[in-house]
Specification:
The protein is of the alpha+beta class. It is built from 6 helices and 9 strands, in the order E-H-E-E-E-H-E-E-H-H-H-E-H-E-E.
Length: about 190
């Protein structure tokens, strides 16, 4: 993807079951797993212990969504678990986790955005939309993110739209040249 402009499709779901079904639909439709990511809170308020541990190439999560996160961790080849100020514990699985980690390690601060927000902004998502996505995660929502060429993004958008997300947006790549980006800057669908 380094040589091709990258577009992003972001679908917002109100439950982990819907987000998991969306990921499975994408995988079953042969969307490459390295283009998929899931973002959501790492816990739901409860009186039980919440956390995770790593055993080789597997991760075991505790808490209400433990099976969800543990299963997707293996499917999407890793991720990260962090605490985001004003949002709380967040899990980012898939390719996008590396971008969030880079934002954290590089102490990227973009106009008051969190590391999660800065990473979303860095791939061309407008700041006002980033804030909407952060609010969705804060409200226990889940983001399914697909990055790829315009054709891949449009195919993913059609597949995700069939899973009835609360919101779905297609974002054009962050590019220095407008002619390199072959998709609309933001396209709300739904």
């Amino acid at each position: 993807m380094a040589n091709n402009p990258t577009n992003a499709v972001v679908a917002v779901y109100d439950s982990h079951e819907r987000a998991e079904n969306a990921i499975r639909k994408l995988v079953d439709s042969k969307i490459p797993m390295e283009k998929l990511s899931v973002i959501g809170k790492g816990y739901h308020t409860e009186e039980k212990l919440v956390g995770f541990y790593n055993t080789g190439d597997r991760v075991k999560f505790w808490g209400k969504f433990g099976a969800f996160w543990g299963g997707l961790w293996g499917l999407l080849a890793g991720g990260l678990y962090m605490t985001v100020p004003l949002i709380g514990p967040v899990v980012v699985l898939g390719h996008f986790a590396a971008m969030v980690l880079a934002a954290i390690e590089g102490a990227v601060v973009t106009g008051g955005l969190s590391a999660l927000g800065a990473a979303l902004f860095s791939i061309g998502i407008p700041k006002n939309t980033v804030l909407q996505y952060e609010q969705a995660v804060k409200a226990d929502g889940f983001l399914v993110l697909v990055q790829g060429t315009a054709e891949e993004a449009e195919r993913a958008r059609a597949l995700l739209n069939a899973t009835a997300p609360k919101q779905i947006d297609m974002h054009c790549c962050k590019s220095k040249r407008a002619d390199e980006c072959d998709a609309p800057k933001v396209k709300a669908v739904g």
